[in-house]
Amino acid sequence: FFKRGKKIIQCENLNVKDITANEKGTSFVLDSHGQFEISLYGKKNAWNAAGVITALVGLGFKIEDIRKAIKTFTGPKRRFEQKFVNKETYLFDDYAHHPKEIEATINAARKKFSGKRIIVVFQSHTFSRTQALLKDFSKALSRADYTFVLPIFSSARENPVDFSVTHHNIEESAERNVKAVDSKDSLLAELRKILKRGDVIFTMGAGDVYKLEGDIIEIIRKV
User: In terms of pLDDT, which residue wins out, 16 or 136?
Assistant: First the structure.
């Protein structure tokens, strides 16, 4: 494959420094190319951007043109995607379905919204992944101020009866801040009890948790 093209990136050689977050996004310094700003959050997005910049430089694009273009990139769907905001209360949706992704998203939210409560509505995808990474899921989800865990979203390639793990095991394995809920109505009832003005809510996971957007927005409107 590389014989037909041009290999231009060695990721281990990317020198990304001074990663800082503010209300508009993230800034960082890359090698000898100087400072860049992106509208996304978290170290992973800074490293992704650094890889893109390096690729574009290798293809001959001017550094100032790259700097302008990358600043306005808003990111893909379901990655820290803002769905609604009202009275400083936010709803985001994120595809994070692995403990490392969950941790990175919550950490990025902490940096963007310093001092605000982070509330996660999580739906694990596949019984096999939940069983294999149970403790890691519990640890990552405990980083939020409140996490509500919905029943596991199964995959067509697995039979739920072959597994003993449930969403309640994520709560049982967590040290703090994680609660299993058995239905959409139970979740919405919990949100109505705890939600305050200024909170930041995430629907999170690779299943159909994003479909709760409308119901959560209605709760936010009444805060």
Answer: 136
Q: At what angle do helices 43-58 and 63-71 cross, to 10 degrees?
A: 150
Cα separation, 71 vs 10, whole angstroms? 23
The amino acid at residue 83 is K
| Calpha distance 45→76 (Å, rounded) | 11
Strands 34-38 and 25-30: what pairing? Answer: antiparallel
Residue 167 in contact with residue 153, Cβ under 8 Å?
no
Q: Give the alpha-carbon dihedral of 132, 135, 137, 140, to 10 degrees.
A: -150
Token pair, residue 62, equals: 């001017």
Is residue 198 helix, strand or coil? coil
Query: Which helix H or strand E contains 219, and what residues bound it?
Result: helix 213-221
pLDDT tens profile 157-208: 888 888 999 999 999 999 899 999 999 999 999 999 999 999 999 999 998 9
* Spatial separation of the C-alpha atoms in residues 174 and 97, rounded to whole Å: 17
